[in-house]
Amino acid sequence: MLFSADDLKEWLVKYDAEKRCHDSFWLSLNNYKTEEPDEYEEYFSNFDPSKLVLKIQSVSISYLNYPDLNYNHVRVYMPIRYQDKKIGYYELWLAFDGTVEDDYFVLE
Protein backbone atom coordinates (compact mmCIF):
# COMPACT_ATOMS: atom_id res chain seq x y z
CA MET A 1 0.00 0.00 0.00
CA LEU A 2 1.53 3.30 -1.07
CA PHE A 3 0.29 6.68 0.08
CA SER A 4 0.27 9.94 -1.84
CA ALA A 5 0.50 13.11 0.28
CA ASP A 6 -3.26 13.58 -0.16
CA ASP A 7 -3.92 9.97 0.88
CA LEU A 8 -1.76 10.47 3.94
CA LYS A 9 -3.60 13.67 4.90
CA GLU A 10 -6.93 11.82 4.61
CA TRP A 11 -5.56 8.95 6.67
CA LEU A 12 -4.37 11.34 9.40
CA VAL A 13 -7.83 12.90 9.63
CA LYS A 14 -9.64 9.55 9.50
CA TYR A 15 -7.62 8.19 12.42
CA ASP A 16 -7.42 11.52 14.32
CA ALA A 17 -3.65 11.13 14.44
CA GLU A 18 -2.84 14.66 15.62
CA LYS A 19 -5.16 14.49 18.64
CA ARG A 20 -4.04 10.97 19.46
CA CYS A 21 -0.39 12.04 19.36
CA HIS A 22 -1.04 14.90 21.77
CA ASP A 23 -3.18 12.75 24.08
CA SER A 24 -0.56 10.00 24.10
CA PHE A 25 2.15 12.54 24.87
CA TRP A 26 0.29 13.72 27.97
CA LEU A 27 -0.22 10.15 29.12
CA SER A 28 3.50 9.46 28.68
CA LEU A 29 4.45 12.66 30.51
CA ASN A 30 2.23 11.74 33.45
CA ASN A 31 3.66 8.21 33.52
CA TYR A 32 7.17 9.67 33.44
CA LYS A 33 6.34 11.95 36.37
CA THR A 34 5.11 8.98 38.38
CA GLU A 35 7.77 6.45 37.38
CA GLU A 36 10.84 8.74 37.34
CA PRO A 37 10.08 11.65 39.71
CA ASP A 38 13.71 12.73 40.21
CA GLU A 39 14.49 12.80 36.51
CA TYR A 40 11.16 14.51 35.82
CA GLU A 41 12.17 17.32 38.18
CA GLU A 42 15.44 17.80 36.28
CA TYR A 43 13.54 18.60 33.08
CA PHE A 44 10.29 20.00 34.41
CA SER A 45 10.95 21.59 37.80
CA ASN A 46 8.07 23.88 38.75
CA PHE A 47 6.29 22.70 35.60
CA ASP A 48 4.41 25.45 33.80
CA PRO A 49 2.30 24.07 30.92
CA SER A 50 2.23 27.52 29.28
CA LYS A 51 5.98 27.13 28.64
CA LEU A 52 5.53 23.82 26.82
CA VAL A 53 5.23 23.93 23.02
CA LEU A 54 3.97 20.80 21.24
CA LYS A 55 3.58 20.98 17.48
CA ILE A 56 3.77 18.07 15.11
CA GLN A 57 6.78 18.63 12.90
CA SER A 58 6.64 15.66 10.55
CA VAL A 59 4.73 12.59 9.53
CA SER A 60 6.43 9.72 7.76
CA ILE A 61 5.68 6.25 6.54
CA SER A 62 8.14 3.53 7.42
CA TYR A 63 8.38 0.07 5.90
CA LEU A 64 10.57 -1.93 8.25
CA ASN A 65 11.92 -5.45 8.58
CA TYR A 66 13.55 -5.60 5.17
CA PRO A 67 13.24 -7.60 2.96
CA ASP A 68 9.84 -8.76 4.25
CA LEU A 69 8.67 -5.19 4.94
CA ASN A 70 6.05 -6.50 7.33
CA TYR A 71 6.45 -4.01 10.18
CA ASN A 72 4.98 -0.81 8.74
CA HIS A 73 3.82 2.42 10.32
CA VAL A 74 2.76 5.98 10.00
CA ARG A 75 5.08 7.84 12.35
CA VAL A 76 3.98 11.13 13.87
CA TYR A 77 6.93 13.16 15.22
CA MET A 78 6.58 16.03 17.67
CA PRO A 79 9.51 17.91 19.24
CA ILE A 80 9.15 18.71 22.93
CA ARG A 81 10.02 22.36 23.54
CA TYR A 82 10.04 23.66 27.09
CA GLN A 83 11.11 27.12 28.22
CA ASP A 84 12.10 28.01 24.64
CA LYS A 85 14.44 25.08 24.03
CA LYS A 86 14.07 21.64 22.52
CA ILE A 87 14.47 19.08 25.28
CA GLY A 88 13.42 15.95 23.37
CA TYR A 89 10.70 14.51 21.20
CA TYR A 90 7.62 12.35 21.23
CA GLU A 91 6.88 9.97 18.35
CA LEU A 92 3.73 7.91 17.91
CA TRP A 93 3.78 4.85 15.63
CA LEU A 94 0.43 3.87 14.14
CA ALA A 95 -0.25 0.76 12.09
CA PHE A 96 -1.97 1.31 8.76
CA ASP A 97 -5.27 0.26 10.35
CA GLY A 98 -4.92 3.13 12.85
CA THR A 99 -3.98 1.12 15.93
CA VAL A 100 -1.18 2.42 18.12
CA GLU A 101 1.77 0.05 17.92
CA ASP A 102 4.46 1.98 19.74
CA ASP A 103 5.51 5.35 21.04
CA TYR A 104 8.74 7.02 22.06
CA PHE A 105 9.07 9.67 24.77
CA VAL A 106 12.69 10.80 24.56
CA LEU A 107 14.40 13.54 26.54
CA GLU A 108 17.82 14.66 25.39
List the helices and strands and how they pair.
Blueprint: H1 5-14, H2 17-35, H3 37-44, E1 52-54, E2 58-64, E3 71-82, E4 85-94, E5 100-107
Helix pairs in contact: 2-3
Overview of this protein structure:
With 108 residues, the protein is of the alpha+beta class. The protein has one domain (5-107). Helices cover 34% and strands 37% of the residues. It is elongated and about 45 Å long. The termini are far apart. The model has no long low-confidence stretch (mean pLDDT 95).
List keywords for this structure.
37% strand, alpha+beta, 5 strands, 108 residues, 3 helices, five-stranded antiparallel β-sheet
Total number of β-strand segments? 5
Strand/helix succession? HHHEEEEE
Question: For the residues shown, what is the average pLDDT?
Answer: 95
Q: What is the number of domains?
A: 1
How many helices in DSSP terms? 3
Distance between the termini: 34 Å
Low-confidence stretches: none
CA radius of gyration: 15 Å
Shape: elongated
How would you sum up the major sheet?
A: 5 strands, antiparallel
Portion in helices:
25-40%
Coarse structural class: alpha+beta
Strand content: 35-45%
Short description:
Helices cover 34% and strands 37% of the residues. With 108 residues, it is of the alpha+beta class.
